[in-house]
Design a protein that fits this description.
Layout: E1 6-10, E2 13-20, H1 27-33, E3 40-45, H2 49-62, E4 67-72, H3 81-93, E5 101-106, H4 108-120, E6 126-131, H5 134-140, E7 145-150, E8 153-160, E9 165-169, H6 178-194, H7 197-205, H8 212-232, H9 238-242, H10 247-257, H11 264-281, H12 287-299, H13 312-325, E10 332-337, E11 340-344, H14 349-358
Parallel strand pairs: 2-9, 3-4, 3-5, 5-6, 6-9
Antiparallel strand pairs: 1-2, 7-8, 10-11
Helix pairs in contact: 3-4, 5-6, 5-8, 6-7, 6-8, 6-11, 10-11, 10-13, 11-12, 11-14
Bound molecules: nicotinamide-adenine-dinucleotide.
């Protein structure tokens, strides 16, 4: 029984997200339904090219579509203008036309990069997101943010470009490294804390080794949070900021450890613990709920301790630097209870310093 589609509605139009095991098998029918009958340009993460992109191309060919693929080297270092330029040459050199479609098969890196290339080639080609990481399924493939990194910072060059369809085939997760999967669960838990107490409770009751059908349902519920937020607010601010829960100190930890040493989701998990402690210190969140959040993160194999070797002063300085960029105010996303969060810009620096000083540290 397929799960009901989620519909994303933006001023630029609306589109569906479909979630379930084996959905890539029916991709040709979905393209036909959307009127995408031109050529198909599949941009895929190199790690899954042989295992997932090649069979998908075969399926598209069998359906009579003209399709070709490009393998993007895995990892954040591919999300830049140089790789985008290679993709422009591939598309334009291959005679791409306005009626063609770009398919992005991979995690957030592939989705952001391919999305940006689709947004900017011939002033905008149709885009279909085919996320293959848990993070991409519940977050990055939705909402239309695309972009690449600049040497001076992440995601500084980009465009809003909504996909025509997001199709999340949960079977693709079978090959995802366990650490990447755990990092994805941090985002799912985050969605429960900021918006959906029922999702949080389902996660508390979940068997860690659950099947594709159960994972599909949880992904749908977590993606629905992003959809709700994006539907309210396509271009940032207000509700969309809630998705940054755990990010303020999480980003500082990610950067201080050196990008890649701590995965984004792992840093967000630690950032959620610290933000919840700040909320406790502000008198707006309870000790009991803080412990529920911590237990759920631990149950999913996520640490809530700051990695050894990161100095308090460094973390605070990085957080403060963030503050300078935003005209002197840090917008902290803080939980008020499981299922609801608010944005606060009146958190005293001294409280942040105290929470960081008292936080648990890993010993290695
Ligand atoms: N656009 C947005 O709204 C948005 C939101 C959040 C994050 N992001 C971006 O997303 C990126 C992170 O995304 P991510 O965590 O998916 O990282 P990623 O795309 O780098 O994927 C993580 C790793 O998993 C591998 N991989 C992907 N799918 C696989 C599969 N099915 N089997 C085996 N290996 C697989 C990749 O090769 C990579 O090594 C960042 O660049 C971030 O800026 C964007």
């Amino acid at each position: 029984m397929p799960l009901p589609a989620l519909t994303i509605t933006t001023p630029a139009g609306s589109y569906d997200m479909l979630i379930g095991p084996g959905l890539l098998d029916s991709l040709p029918e979905h393209l036909a339904r959307l009127g995408l009958t031109g050529r198909v340009w599949l941009i895929a993460d190199a790690a899954i090219y042989a295992g997932q992109a090649v069979p998908l191309l075969a399926r598209l060919h069998a359906a009579g579509l003209s399709a070709q693929g490009f393998a993007v080297p895995s990892g954040e270092q591919s999300k830049n203008l140089a790789v985008a330029a290679e993709l422009y040459s591939w598309l334009i050199g291959g005679g791409v036309e306005r009626r063609d479609a770009v398919l992005a098969l991979g995690g957030g890196v592939t989705g952001d990069l391919a999305g940006f290339v689709a947004a900017t080639t011939l002033r905008g080609l149709a885009l279909v997101q085919l996320p293959t990481t848990l993070l991409a399924m519940v977050d990055s493939a939705l909402g239309g943010k695309t972009g690449v990194n600049h040497p001076l910072g992440k995601n500084l060059i980009g465009a809003f470009h909504q996909p025509r369809l997001v199709l999340a085939d949960v079977r693709t997760l079978a090959t995802l490294p366990p650490r990447e999967l755990r990092a994805g669960w941090a985002e799912v838990i985050k969605h429960g804390v900021i918006w959906d107490a029922g999702l949080f409770e389902e996660l508390e009751g979940r068997q860690i080794a659950c099947d594709d059908a159960a994972i599909g349902k949880l992904i749908r519920r977590a993606a629905a949070v992003k959809v709700a937020v994006v539907n309210i607010d396509e271009r940032e601010q207000a509700e969309r900021m809630l998705l940054n829960y755990g990010h303020t100190l999480g980003h500082a930890i990610e950067a201080a450890a050196g990008y890649g040493a701590v995965l984004h989701g792992e840093a967000v998990a630690i950032g959620m613990e610290l933000a919840a402690r700040i909320a406790l210190g502000m008198g707006m969140f309870s000790q009991g709920e803080l412990e529920r959040q911590r237990s759920l993160l631990h149950k999913n194999g996520l640490s809530t301790a700051i990695p050894a070797g990161l100095a308090d002063a460094d973390l605070l300085e990085r957080t403060l630097r963030d503050k300078k960029v935003k005209q002197g105010t840090i917008h902290w996303v803080l939980p008020v209870r499981i299922g609801a969060a608010v944005v606060r810009s009146d958190v005293p620096d001294a409280l942040v310093a105290e929470v960081v000083a008292k936080a648990a540290r890993t010993t290695t």
